Amino acid sequence: MPDIVAISETWLTPDISNSIFVPTNSYFCFRKDRQAGSGGGVFLMIKKSQYISVHQVPLSAQYDNAELICVDVSDHTGSLPLRIVVAYRPPDYSSSENALLFSALDSLADDCVRLCVLGDFNLPLTALLMIVLVFVCWVISICP
Q1: Sign, Cα dihedral of 32, 47, 56, 85
Q2: How far apart are CA 113 and CA 26, in angstroms?
Q3: If phi over 0 gives left and psi between -120 and 50 gives alpha, with beta otherwise, what is residue 37?
Q4: How many domains does the chain contain in total?
Q5: Which of 143, 137, 82 is nearest to 112 (CA)?
Q6: How many CA atoms lie within 13 A of 144 on its CB side?
Q7: 45: part of which helix (H) or strand (E)?
Q8: CB atoms within 10 A of CB 99
Q9: What is the dihedral of CA 139, 142, 97, 69, to 10 degrees?
Q10: What is the CATH number of the domain that holds 99?
Q11: S-S: 43 plus which of 7, 17, 81, 132, CB 3.0-4.6 Å?
């Protein structure tokens, strides 16, 4: 059984229970279903262990329409938590929806040292290359 499973574009609805496809006694389950229409949605499973604690990170109400979830995973050694974000960006997002999603990601990364962002961003190759370039420049600026 895997330790972490992240799924984007789940197509789940509130009437579908997590227990249908995952042993909920073995996994912490977090999900956000699309609020209107079909498709979309994100889901995160983290295997339960006596050595870790998992806490969902609350998002500001302004990000209610963003398809993303965020959790902090901590061990019991006192090390900094690992923040895991799972996001889905539909291919037809408008400029304002893009700005909102990236604002949410920026907000979640703001007070975090260890961050893992997973998901489907449906970005054209040129936009993806720009994001990678910006990320590399950011890493170079914070790492001596």
Answers
A1: negative
A2: 28
A3: left
A4: 1
A5: 82
A6: 0
A7: strand 42-47
A8: 11
A9: 90
A10: 3.60.10.10
A11: 7
How many Å apart are CA 60 and CA 92, to the nearest integer?
23
CA angle 78, 23, 108 (to 5 degrees): 40
Q: From CA 66, how far away is CA 137, in angstroms rounded?
A: 26
Dihedral (CA of 32, 102, 2, 58) sign: negative
Owning domain of residue 18: 4-142
Euclidean distance between CA atoms 139 and 116, whole angstroms: 14
- Residue 38 DSSP code: S
d(CA 96, CA 22): 35
Q: State both tokens at 93.
A: 């997002």
